[in-house]
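May I ask for an example protein's residues together with how it folds?

___
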Amino acid sequence: MSTETDRRIAFLTLALEQANDTFRSKMDELSLVRRVGDAISQHTSIWSLSSELVDAIAATVSCKYMLIYARPDAGQFELQAVSSIFSGPEEFPVTIGASQIVRHLEATGSSIQVANIADNPIWSEDWPLPKSLASWVCVPLLTRNHLRGILCLADEAPGSFDERTLRTLMVVVPQIASAFSNIGLYAHLRESETKYRTLVTEIQDVVYICDRRWLILDANPAAEALFGCSIIGKTLTELFASPNMASQFVVAARTSRVVQNFETELLTNTNERIVVLLSCVGDAGRFSGIIKDMTERTRLMDQITRAQKMESIGTLASGVAHDFNNIIGIILPNAELIKMRTEPDSAPTRFADIIINASKRAAQLTKQLLSLSRKDPVSLRVVSLNELIQTTGKLLGETLDRKIRLEFDLTNECTNIKADETQIEQVLLNLAINARDAMPDGGLLKFSSRVDNDQVVVQVTDSGTGIDRETLPKIFDPFFTTKEKTNGKGLGLSVVYGIVKQTGGTIDVKSELGTGTEFILSFPSCTEKRRKPVHQTAKPTGGSEKILIADDEPEMLNLLDSVLTELGYSVISARNGVEAIESTTDDVQLIILDMIMPEMDGVSALRLIRQKSPDVKVLVSSGYTSPEKAPVLEALGIDGFLHKPFEVVKLASTVRDVLDGVAVS
C-alpha cells in the first residue's frame, strides 16, 4: 500500500515539476514577447533595435553569444549587434555575402541548428567563426518570403541548444522579422518624403494642396515668393483677379477632376496682377496642383509681338518713305523759292507758307513712322542726358500751362550716352506732352536722372489721371490713342518706344488710375567725352564749282539745277547711274547722287565713280536709305548725306560745306 502511495506521490511530483517547467517556459516566452514588443515600439532603426534585442534574447535563452545580422538593402548582411559578457563583435564576421548558408535560409525558410561545429566543416569554409565556438543556431527573419535578417545563437559547449530554445526563439522571430520589415518600409517612406519635400521646396513653381472647399491647406515656399505672403488658410478662388475665371476653373476641376494649364490672372498681396498657368488634380475630398508664373513670359511675348508689329510698320514705312520724301522734296524747296521771289505780305507768299508748313508736317509724319519702327537712320553722338533734360525743361517752362509745376532731380554723375540728340529731345517732349494731356487741371511733372551701374536712368513722372490696366499694355502700339481723333494720331508714345529701342535702351511704365504715371528710360552709359558742336555763324554762300546732279525725278533735277545755278555753280544733270558715270569728268568737283535710280542704283554707280575719279567729292541724297547701307556708303568714302526733303538753305549750306571740306552730318 505504501509503495503504491509512494509511486503516486512520485508521479504527481514529477507532473507538478513538468507543469512548473512549462509554466516557467511560458512565462519566459511572455516576458520575452513583452520585452521585444517594448523594444520594437521604442526604436525606428534596425541598428538600435538590434542592440536591445540581443540582450533581451540572450538573457532568456541563456546563451553566451547572441548576434543579429540584417540586410537593409539588396547587398550583404551586416552585423548589427552582439550580446556577450566575454567577447566583442570583432571576433565575428562583420559582413556576410551570398554564402551557401544564406542561400539555404532564403530557399527553405527553416532554421539551421548545429550541435558541434567541428563536425560541420562548411562553417569554417562558408562562414568563418571564432574557433572557440561549438554550438550554433541560425534562425531566418522572413517576411513575405524575403530574408530581412538572421538571428544567431552561439556557445562554446557542444549541444547547448535544445528544442525548447528554438521554440522560445520562434515565439518572437515573426515579431522581429515584421519589425525589420516595417523599419525598412519606414526608412524608404522617410527617404521618399524627404526627396518629395526637397523637390517641392526647391521647385520654382507653386505647389499647393486644397480641401474640397478650395481652402489651401499647404503650399511650398515658392507661393510666398510669388504672392508676397503666405497663402495657407486662404481659398484658392479668392486669389483670382476675375470671379468669372474662378468659377470656370472650379467647374472644370469638379467636372473632370483634372485641369491642365488653365491660363488666368491672380492677385498678389499688393493687388498686382500676375499671369499664371493653373493645374490641379484631385478627388471629392482634396485637390493638389501647380501654379506656374507666366508673367515674365507673357511680357516677353508682348514685346516680341510689339516688335513684330513695329517691324511690319517699318517695312511698310520704308517702302513708301523714299517715294513720299521725294515728292515732298520737290514740293518744299519749290514753295520756298516762290516765297523767296515774292513780296513778303503777298497772297503767293501766304500760299507758299501753307505749302511749306504742310510739307514739313508730312515729312515729320514719315520720320515718325520710321522712328517708331527703328528704320530711321540716326547719327549717334555723345550727348548728356542732363543737358538735354535742362534744355527741354526751358522750352516746357515757356510753353506749358502755369498750372503744371516742373521739378528736376538730376544726378551730379556723368549722364553721357550715345544717341541722336534730336531724337532724345523728341522723346522727352513727347513724354512731357503726354503728361500735360493727363493733367488738364494742372499738377506736377518731374524729371529725374540717376546712374545705375552701366546704365543712365531717366524717370518722367506726372500726377495726372493715370492709365487703367486694360489700356496700359497698348500705349506703345502704333496709332493707339485715347484722345479725340482731332487731337492725336497715336504715334507719340510709339515713336518714343522706337527711338529708345533704336538707341539701345529700354523703356518701362508704371501707372494706375488716379495715381499718375511714371516712365522709366534706361540707356547704356558712355565714357567718351562730349564734343561741343561747332555752329557755323556765316550765312551759306554759293560758288563757281562744277557740280554733277544725278536723280531719276525730272522735277528734282530741275529744282537742283535751278537752285545751284542761282547760287553760281556750273551744273550738269544725269537721269540714272549709267549717265552719272559717263558724265563724271576730271573737272567735276562734286556729285549729288540719288540712291534709288533705274538701270543702275546709287551704290553701284558710286563704286564705278570711285574707280574712275577717286578724289571727287560725293554727296548722297535720298528719300530713304536703310541703316544697313550706311557702312557700305562710308566704306565708299561719301562726303555727306542730304536727306530728302530738304530746305533750300540746307541744300546750299551742305553743298558749300562739302566743297570746303567741312564735316557734314
Notes: Residues 295-340 form the longest helix (46 residues). The chain has a mean pLDDT of 82. DSSP finds 17 helices and 23 strands in the chain. The domain at 546-660 is CATH 3.40.50.2300 (Rossmann fold).
